[in-house]
Amino acid sequence: MLLGTTILVLAGCQQQPEPAAINPLQGSPIAATVNGAPIYERDIDMKLAAMPESLQQFREDPQARSYILHTLIRRNLVSQKATALGLDLDPSIRQRINMARRDILIEAAKNWQMSHMPKIQESAVQNYYNQHPDEFTVPEQIHARHILVATEKQAKNILLALKRKRATFSALAASESLDDSNKSRGGDLNWFSRGVMVKPFEQTAFALELNTLSEPVKTKFGWHIIEVIGKRPASRKDLAEVRDEIQSQLQQAQMEEWFKQLEHAASIKLMPPYLNTTPASNLGSSDGHTQTEK
Question: What DSSP string runs through 81-141?
Fold first, then answer.
């Protein structure tokens, strides 16, 4: 019963058009008819395929398929009722139907183009990797912790206590630091690169030797005592780590070129106030929806 309820809720919440009817001659038997309109086994398969991965194990379960079928029957009945009421003739509803149809066609066209594009060659991946070193460089990072207090005098007293080993850094951070976000972790700020912390803090922290304490550092937050407990030099990711990322970027570049070709081949007329606006292909759009669409 719980499985059925979950499937019904998920199926009902999916905001997408009903699947197109599949010709039974293509190998999809009719599972039911609703006032003469067929529902095919393929329609059930499509609904189950859209379910979360945790429910995919039930794709062949007769009870699960029955729940989906009855959901489709109810949706078809409601859809037929809407048509009988003439709701599909309402201009705003008609517009939404047309937009949903267009979205489906756009997705289908993109999938078709992806399947017909030349396969990304390993040489192209290697060239991109060699020509864009900055994209795959991991910047220098440090692992630091700090104690934040309100005055310079407090900071100097804490530094003295640490140097004389009167207390541990973690203990003083827990008892004295004003930074509630990390005092329970002994002031641990984890790993970070340049550009994350405020300038005075960053400059001091990156200049420190490993396992050394800073003099009191003033920022807009107060006074800090900093200790660097780890350092990582800048490094470059191996090609194996980023191969999939590069392939995806090269495929996207191919798709962008296809979008531009479609725009150039089309007759597009912009109306005020869009006369001098920039085409979506120049803005990095990749969904096929451009400012020039009518």
Answer: HHHHTTGGGSHHHHHHHHHHHHHHHHHHHHHHHHHHSPPPPHHHHHHHHHH-GGGGEEPPE
